[in-house]
Structures are given as C-alpha cells and as structure tokens.
UniProtKB/TrEMBL annotation:
Keywords: Hydrolase. InterPro entries: AB_hydrolase_fold, LYPA1-2/EST-like, PLipase/COase/thioEstase. GO terms for molecular function: hydrolase activity. It comes from Paenibacillus agaridevorans. It comes from the Bacteria. Belongs to the AB hydrolase superfamily. AB hydrolase 2 family. Residues 20-209 form the Phospholipase/carboxylesterase/thioesterase domain. PANTHER family: LYSOPHOSPHOLIPASE-LIKE PROTEIN 1, LYSOPHOSPHOLIPASE-RELATED. This is Esterase.
Length: 223
C-alpha cells in the first residue's frame, strides 16, 4: 500500500477466504510509535484486523502526527494534513485488506484520541465507531471544520481523573460537546493520570466486542 504512513498490521490467524473483517486502526500518543497501542487491543486480533499507524513526523525516539504551537494548540496546517492523510489511509487500507467497511473503528490515545474524534466528526458514519482515550476536540475543528452527523457513530471516550497533561476539566468539556452530537456515547472517568488503567483497557475491549458483534467470553467479558 502506497502511503505516507508506516504501519503495523495484524491479521487474524485463521482468516476465511472471501470474508470481510472488522478493523481497529490505532493512533498512538505524542512521541510513541505504531506498535504502542497493540497490547491494548491484542485480544481482538483473532476476530478483527488491527492496524497501528505511525505518525509521520519524528519526535525524539518516537513519532507524532502533528506539531504543536503550545500544549493543546496544534499547528493548524500540519493538523489539517494529518487528518486528510489518515482519512486516505483508512480508505486505502479498506481497499487493500479484507476489511468490512461497515465495521471500521479508530482507537487513539492523547494526540491519537484528538485525531480519532476529529476523524469521527469529519467522516461521520463512514466509521462504525471510535475510542478516544485522554483527548479533546480542538477549537478550530469545532468552529471551522465541516462536521458530519454522528447519530450512527458509536463513541467510547474516557479520561483520567488526575490527568496532569489534559486536566479532568477538559475531559468533562469533551463529554459535554460529544453528548450534544453523539447519541451513542459512552464516557467514563478512571482514577488515573495521563494513561490507561487495567479497568479502562478491559472496558474498551468489551465495548468494541459488543459494538462490533464479536464473541464474548463468560459473563460478557472479552476473551
């Protein structure tokens, strides 16, 4: 696949010929890489395709999708290019791999969560759902982007109660904004800093499994 982005892909081990599979595209946080989020969703890899997308801008030993003017203030032109590039990547991957276009999910943490929410707001029901962990929606996205209807888009958003990067106030503002636009919203707060707790990870897995119609283990727990 010809793309601006390097990526890490995991296909189900026992894929059936002619079958289309749900996909989870993962977007990492600032300074990380395309493999960082796989551990969170690896239990889904027997029933879904997992594609980790690496930011195309080097940052220290890792990568980022866009640069910042200051904390919480993306460089607009670079951010715009990233959103366009990721939309194209999602569509190209859907053409190349056996992906069910009606079961496409984007999961992101921090910078990746910001992009996941922006992609949902701009792609609408071209996505089945998103998971946004410890992020926010930039003001210029709310005010200047052409936004799509989210009535059919499932959204799981969460925030750390003690987040030292994006304070919990930002999480509550994000919840209020999404509540007005996404009727299929699940929002949770966890006793964490800027990270993902075991409970948060378990809730994400179970949410994706239920929303995508994947198998559940005993008592509804993700297998």
């Amino acid at each position: 696949m010809n793309s601006l982005y390097h990526y890490d892909i995991h296909l189900p081990a026992n894929m059936e010929q002619g079958r289309k599979y749900p996909v989870v595209f993962t977007l990492h946080g600032k300074g990380s890489n395309e493999k960082n989020m796989f551990g969170l969703v690896s239990p889904l890899s027997e029933q879904a395709i997992i594609i980790g997308i690496r930011g195309n801008l080097p940052l220290g030993a890792g990568y980022q999708y866009y640069e910042l003017v200051s904390l919480g203030n993306p460089v607009r032109s670079v951010f715009d290019d990233s959103v366009k590039g990721l939309r194209a990547f999602i569509d190209d991957a859907t053409e190349q791999y056996p992906i069910d276009p009606e079961k496409r999910y984007v999961l992101g943490f921090s910078q990746g969560a910001i992009l996941a929410m922006t992609l949902a707001l701009t792609m609408g029901d071209a996505l089945k759902g998103i998971v946004a962990l410890n992020g926010y929606v930039p003001g210029f996205v709310k005010e200047e982007y052409p936004l799509r209807n989210l009535d059919k888009v499932s959204v799981f958003a969460s925030h750390g109660e003690f987040d030292s990067v994006f304070p919990i106030r930002i999480g509550h503002e994000t919840k209020a904004y999404l509540e007005e636009r996404a009727p299929l919203l699940t929002f949770k707060v966890y006793p964490a800093d800027h990270g993902v707790t075991e409970e948060n990870a378990r809730d994400v897995l179970n949410w994706i499994r239920r929303d995508a119609g994947l198998d559940l283990g005993e008592e509804g727990e993700a297998r």
